[in-house]
Amino acid sequence: MIGTDTISRVIGQDVYDQSGEKIGSAAEVYLDDETGQPEWVTVRTGLFGTKESFVPIRNADLTDEGVRVPVSKSQVKDAPKIDTDGHLSPQEEQELYRYYGMGSGTDTAQTATTESTTDMSTTGMATTGMATTGMTDTATTGAGYTDTGTAGTGMTDAPGTVGRDVSGPTTDNAMTRSEERLNVGTTSQEVGRARLRKYVVTENVTETVPVSREEVRVEREPITDANIGNAMDGPAISEEEHEVVLHAETPVVEKEAVPVERVRLDKTTVTEQAQVTEGLRKEEIEVDDAGTERRI
């Protein structure tokens, strides 16, 4: 559904019929002076877009490709030829309603009075008959249109012109074809942070160290001339006790903290290829030559 807030997006868009076949390009949008809602759109058709036909926009849809209207292309081509002078009379409006099988439109669509007035409605349109999106007045319209009497962006003071889009009163007999180009750049943004943290863990370490100990060994020696003096010293029979001190080594463990390395964080830049996919719109030109249509 197209409302007053999306009218500026309609101007200059491609118009497709209910089966998806392209009809032409949108030139002007006419609002109902009572409801302030879009009622008709003029579509430029024919060679170089020199013909304009009124198409109902009340139940049309605005998509990424353009405007889809609930009528067929053949209906638009055979529509009543009505001048796009910025105003629809009640008779012209009823003729369009009958042709498109819309009855008499909404209860507020038909306007009995035909005299002009400079009062502005809530959407900034003149309150006589059906008015386009750019009727002349001293105020700015609520839908973002200026007081120059034109609709959309880049319009001239002449009603019904859309600047460079197609030929008209202010352009030559050539049509400008435009297309979108993709400009891809890069921007730097924070994706994460890295930090160093030191903590203590305990590991069991096993080392082997040699230890020595003293053991008792009994030595026996016979009595000889060399030791008989010591052997005969003291009583012949007595009780005696001799003591030998034994020694043994035991492991001794000491721990000390020593620096082993320095650790820091550093950054390096890695370049990789990223694919960007985007839909680009482009205009195509259709030639209607004596009923034969072809694209160039």
Automatic annotation (TrEMBL):
Positions of the PRC-barrel domain: 6-75
Spans annotated as Disordered: 150-174
Compositionally biased tracts (Low complexity): 150-161
Every DUF2382 domain range: 175-287
Domain of life: Bacteria
Pfam families: DUF2382, PRC
PANTHER family: STRESS RESPONSE PROTEIN YSNF
Name assigned to this protein: DUF2382 domain-containing protein
Organism annotation: Blastococcus deserti
